[in-house]
Structure to design on (210 residues):
């Protein structure tokens, strides 16, 4: 029987636990083993009933363990997953109560409740797409991306690796969000966002550029 290890014990980790507990395969193909978190055991409350298993940096994956990435900040997610991936940890996708369009391809990414996407989307690995996000057709999302709840991405939007799109943002058709860029909460984006830029407002304007 496979055991699930959740990497990250904050709010997203607790959300991942809740979704995994109602997954169709719970108790049949796998059981939940516990959490990894770089902050230590104190971040896992007793009310979750699952233990802190160790630090991602030093943890040694077992052959019967599968991993779920549940860390909000893309840079921190990449940092904490790197030592596990180097030890051949196997990550899986979570997609509870989601509607994914025909021919959509995705890697080991987390989909929150009620995420919906159109046809022919391509979604990379180790990303986190929070609940009720709406993706149009032909959307491309890279690796280690974070998309907040109730964001809307129109057709042909391209989100590059490590970008963050915060809650309620609206991205117009064909817009490209560059690697490591940040889109503020509720922003309305009509133009491409350069790599490393932070944009906010309606219409979105650059407020910071790395």
């Amino acid at each position: 029987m496979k055991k699930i290890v959740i990497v990250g014990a904050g709010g997203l980790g607790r959300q991942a636990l809740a979704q995994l507990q109602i997954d169709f395969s719970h108790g049949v193909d796998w059981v939940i083993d516990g959490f990894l978190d770089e902050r230590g055991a104190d971040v896992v409350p007793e009310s979750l009933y699952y233990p802190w298993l160790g630090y991602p940096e030093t943890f040694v994956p077992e052959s019967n363990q599968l991993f779920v990435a549940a860390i909000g900040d893309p840079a921190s997610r990449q940092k904490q997953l790197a030592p596990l991936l180097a030890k051949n940890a196997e990550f899986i996708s979570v997609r509870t109560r989601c509607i994914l369009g025909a021919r959509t391809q995705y890697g080991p990414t987390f989909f929150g409740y009620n995420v919906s996407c159109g046809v022919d989307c391509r979604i990379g690995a180790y990303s986190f797409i929070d609940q009720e996000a709406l993706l149009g057709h032909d959307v491309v999302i890279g690796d280690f991306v974070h998309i907040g709840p109730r964001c809307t991405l129109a057709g042909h939007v391209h989100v590059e690796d490590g970008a963050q799109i915060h809650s309620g943002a609206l991205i117009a058709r064909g817009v490209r969000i560059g690697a490591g860029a940040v889109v503020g909460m509720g922003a309305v984006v009509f133009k491409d966002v350069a790599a490393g830029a932070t944009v906010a407002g309606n219409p979105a304007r650059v407020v910071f550029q790395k």
